[in-house]
């Protein structure tokens, strides 16, 4: 799967069903050359108000990913 395909998917918390955001980057281990985590920009309806602050992001370890579907990525984290 290509990174562009991951970027187009919503990241959803499986326990609450809330939308966390979108994949913006990957954390890769240089030694084993495998993905360690997804970096997700949090979804915010008020993003346009806080344009002076950088976008809040959350790092989701690969162990917390349940499944990657056609439209969404289900993970085990808490929305805050």
Q: What report would you give on this structure?
A:
This protein has one helix spanning 3-7; strands at 10-13, 19-29, 34-42, 57-61, 65-68, 72-75. The chain is globular, with a radius of gyration of 13 Å. A hairpin with a 4-residue loop joins strand 2 (19-29) and strand 3. The longest helix is centred in the first third of the chain and has 5 residues, at 3-7. It has one domain (3-75): SH3 type barrels (Roll), CATH 2.30.30.240. It has 80 residues and is mainly beta. The N and C termini lie far apart (29 Å). It has a 6-stranded mixed β-sheet with strand order 4-3-2-1-6-5. Helices cover 6% and strands 46% of the residues. It has 1 helix and 6 strands, in the order H-E-E-E-E-E-E. This is YlmC/YmxH family sporulation protein. Residues 6-76 form the PRC-barrel domain. It comes from Massilimicrobiota timonensis.
């Amino acid at each position: 799967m290509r990174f562009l395909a991951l970027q187009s998917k919503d990241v959803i918390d499986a326990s609450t069903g809330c939308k966390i955001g979108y994949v913006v980057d990957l954390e890769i281990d240089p030694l084993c050359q495998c993905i360690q985590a997804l970096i997700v920009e949090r979804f915010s309806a008020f993003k346009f108000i806080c344009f002076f602050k950088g976008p809040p992001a959350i790092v989701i370890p690969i162990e917390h990913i349940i499944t990657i579907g056609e439209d969404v990525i289900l993970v085990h984290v808490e929305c805050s």
